[in-house]
Amino acid sequence: MSEFTATISQDDSERNLRLNLSESQAMQRQLINNFSHELRTPLTVAYGYMQSIQRRSENLTTLQKNALEVAIFEMECTIQLVQESLELARLDMNSMFLLQELVSLNKLVSEAITVSQNAKGRKIVIEGEELNIIALIDPEHLKRVLLKLIDNAIRYSDDVITIRLEKLNESVAISICDLGYGIPIEDLPHIFNPFYRVDKSRSRNTGGSGLGLAFSKRLVEKMGGILNVYSQLGEGSIFQIIL
Ligand code: ADP
Asked: What's this model's pTM, rounded to 2 decimal places?
């Protein structure tokens, strides 16, 4: 009898602990959501003023122009950070609406490659282009994930990037492969955590917010998929989306 009572009370306290945890996680997300929302407007206004000063910068000294350029860059990074925090919180609170459309992945991948190539000028090759792969996804959001993963591949490597399309048994895969720095094995379990950076100084200089992979993984999961990473230090990385 006492054993039975003990089991019940242990179950109850575990359930209460789980409830308290999920309540405090929900409060935390709500707080981030409100905080980011409140920050976005004043930052955007201040950014607008800085840009208008930059447009009329004839009377500024070189020192002032340089300082303004740095301030604008930092402001852009902060606005991006706030925007991504807001979206991450919304995704975690299930308050981001995702479409479900049957879309040609070949077309979507080609579009993402064209956008990245035009912006960054890096050579990107596609494998499996001849396959006709249709998947049920949100096209704009999957394209954002592809652009983010290609952007990372460009930032963390110097060589050609390959995008591979494959049909697996019951699913399809899009792999973004680079021959860059790679990720140390001890960092791999953490790189999808918000704000986790392998090399903080290098990542900060490249302008990343540290939220891109966390956001991408959650977006892919909301579409019913998985985002995997395989990497070897000094050899390169493969980020694989399975849908
Ligand atoms: P960031 O904005 O800092 O790039 P991400 O969330 O996109 O943030 O990535 C988290 C960290 O994972 C990066 O700071 C970087 O250290 C590492 N990383 C991401 N993609 C790659 C890649 N293709 N090769 C090597 N390291 C990568």
From this structure: 0.83
